[in-house]
Design goal:
The structure holds two protein chains of two kinds. Chain A is mainly alpha-helical. Chain A has helices at 4-16, 22-31, 39-45, 58-72, 92-97, 105-109, 112-125, 144-151, 171-179, 182-185, 198-213, 227-236, 244-254, 264-323. Helices cover 55% and strands 0% of the residues of chain A. In chain A, helix 1 packs antiparallel against helix 2 (22-31), helix 7 packs across helix 12 (227-236) and helix 9 crosses helix 11. Chain A starts with a helix and ends in a 21-residue tail after the last helix. In chain B, a hairpin with a 2-residue loop joins strand 1 and strand 2. Chain B is globular. The chains are: A mainly alpha, B mainly beta. At the A-B interface, helix 14 of A face helix 1 of B.
Chain lengths: 344, 172
């Protein structure tokens, strides 16, 4: 245990954790934790599970992960700050603190496989989104935290995060969090976990938070498209506390940021413009058609006259030939021949 | 009345959009399946699927000619954004012979117009010398004028064109 990645990142996270940095650290710490490993790697790590990962219930999965984490002594995490778990990293750390957190009955009973199906369904629906997703083609390649996020496990604890506190740093974020309805808080998890050095963590969070909170703000211009598919995915989960319809409603509003309200005058102008363009195109088309017809007619006329000329020429030649049977200019037949016939 | 303005090449705007005015000096016959192409006639894509037989005149075997076939109305005459599309190029054709004696440097591509009625133009140039003309890398957005300038081909010595549109579907 204790792979290289974990070691280095845990060290980084651990080093800066504690004190004022504590609030950011938990996210960092997560980088070094089990959650950033792919599910395949996790399976390896938890080698002695006795059960393939895919058929485990989520409940069992989480318990194993927690146990494994505890064993690895990822103690650099300042669990004190863990409750502000709504960072890019999943807030499963918060679950650590509250091991009594029970996943809602349905979710925990679902096996990993079933949850994966749901995720894939959700991804299919949203496959039209152009932005690159952290879409994993296979379950095994998905990182644990992504999986949990998508499964909506993490969101379960979101309603508890009523008092985010200073963890998120900047004012707008704090403000936003207060304004944000509990339903929207889970959106944080959509942000891909990006390993960042500690000092940048705060800014990172701020930006991400801003991006994420947009739907909550009527003035926000756009929602990171990356958010959408994940949101779609979580809608599959029946026990989601958020009201999907509300949020979707907000989303659809914000998805048309560029479209201004078109004044009647504009509409008329556009129609006129379109009509004019159409007219011009038609005119050109008609001109081309006429030109085509004319061109062919001319060509035929030319050809006809050419052929007629040739015909005449040939006819004349033929007539001449008839009159003068021998073609090469021979001696004319009537020409007197000189012969020595009469000797004088 | 000048004969010139009645020239189908001019009336069909081939001279103007594709070529500059020129004087025909070399005999030029393009035949698809023994059907001769008369400038401005209309042919079906099925009739022009394979390369035609092209016989050229001239008076000297030692002169070499280049034949170019382009579609100036690609992808559609209303919006010829790919003008001109190069369908065929044969170089080093000896005078008084035909394309079968030249180098097919750009393979014949069957005309398959989708939108509108396209013109397909055959142009014949006299080369300065043998092996002096090289094909472009792309077929679309070809410019005959520029190409001629690049390889010192001068003005065309002959040209002919036909129209073609999408093959009508068989009914019944």
């Amino acid at each position: 245990m204790g792979t290289q990645t974990m070691g280095s990142q845990a060290g980084c996270g651990g080093g800066s954790s504690g004190g004022t940095e504590g609030q950011k650290s938990h996210a960092l710490a997560r980088e070094g934790s089990l959650y950033s490993l792919t599910l395949d790697e996790v399976q390896n790590q938890l080698g002695n599970l006795g059960k393939p990962l895919s058929s485990m219930n989520l409940d069992e999965l989480l318990k194993s992960v927690w146990t494994a984490e505890a064993n690895q002594g990822v103690g650099s995490v300042d669990y004190g700050a863990v409750q502000h778990g709504l960072q890019m990293a999943p807030s499963v750390p918060s679950l650590h603190r509250q091991p009594s957190v029970a996943l809602s009955g349905d979710l925990s009973k679902k096996t990993v496989d079933e949850v994966w199906q749901d995720i894939q369904q959700g991804q299919k629906k949203s496959s039209h989104d152009k932005k690159a997703q952290e879409r994993q083609p296979t379950l095994g390649e998905m990182t644990l935290e992504d999986f949990l996020v998508k499964a909506g496990v993490v969101a379960e604890s979101s309603p508890r995060k009523k008092n985010p506190g200073p963890v998120l740093g900047g004012d707008p974020i704090g403000l936003a969090q207060q304004n944000m309805p509990p339903q929207a808080q889970w959106m944080h998890y959509q942000l891909p976990s990006i390993p960042q050095p500690a000092q940048q963590q705060q800014h990172q969070h701020q930006q991400n938070m801003m991006a994420v909170y947009m739907p909550g703000h009527p003035v926000q211009q756009h929602l990171p498209i990356g958010a959408n598919p994940i949101m779609d995915v979580s809608y599959q989960e029946p026990q989601m506390t958020m009201s999907p319809s509300t949020l979707m409603g907000t989303l659809s509003d914000t998805q048309t940021p560029g479209r201004k309200r078109v004044a009647p005058g504009d509409v008329i102008e556009k129609t006129v413009e379109r009509r004019q363009k159409r007219m011009i195109k038609n005119r050109e088309s008609a001109a081309r058609s006429r030109a085509r017809k004319q061109a062919y007619t001319h060509e035929l006329e030319n050809k006809v006259s050419r052929l007629e000329e040739e015909n005449e020429k040939l006819k004349r030649q033929k007539a001449v030939e008839k009159a003068l049977p021998s073609v090469p200019p021979p001696e004319p037949k009537y020409q007197l021949r000189r012969t020595s016939s009469s000797p004088f | 009345m000048s004969r010139y303005s009645m020239d189908p090449l001019a009336v069909g705007r081939v001279i103007g959009e594709v070529l500059d005015p020129f004087i025909r000096t070399v005999a030029f016959r393009v035949r698809y399946n023994n059907r001769e192409v008369t400038s401005g006639c209309e042919l079906r894509p099925s009739q022009v699927a394979n390369s035609p037989r092209v016989d050229i005149g001239g008076d000297d075997l030692r002169n070499f000619y280049t034949l170019i076939m382009v579609d100036p109305d690609a992808p559609s005459p209303n919006d010829p954004s790919l003008r001109e599309y190069l369908h065929w190029m044969v170089t080093d054709i000896p005078g008084t012979t035909s394309t079968s004696f030249g180098q097919e440097v750009v393979k014949y591509e069957s005309p398959l117009p989708h939108l509108g009625i396209h013109r397909f133009v055959f142009v014949l140039f006299q080369q300065l010398g043998r092996q002096t003309v090289y094909p472009p890398s792309l077929r679309h957005n070809f410019c005959t004028r520029d190409f001629a300038m690049l390889y010192n081909l001068g003005l065309p010595v002959a040209a002919v064109y036909f129209n073609a549109q999408r093959e009508p579907s068989n009914r019944g």
